């Protein structure tokens, strides 16, 4: 009888809350509100432990309609 191995892995896009963003007018819903600053990245996990992250970018998200404005460093 041979050895049997199993691996638990995951892959996907994750978002991390970075705090309050700028006050701006949304180009989609035309409301002026404070936006939320987020970091979005791809992540690979092995046995529920993050192993690698790539394609990092910072975004601001409208709190009313969810429109995003990318790469606001």
TrEMBL record:
Entry-linked InterPro entries: Zinc_ribbon_15
Listed Pfam families: Zn_ribbon_15 (PF17032)
Domain Zinc-ribbon, residue spans: 25-71
Protein known as: Zinc-ribbon 15 domain-containing protein
Lineage: Bacteria, Bacillati, Actinomycetota, Actinomycetes, Mycobacteriales
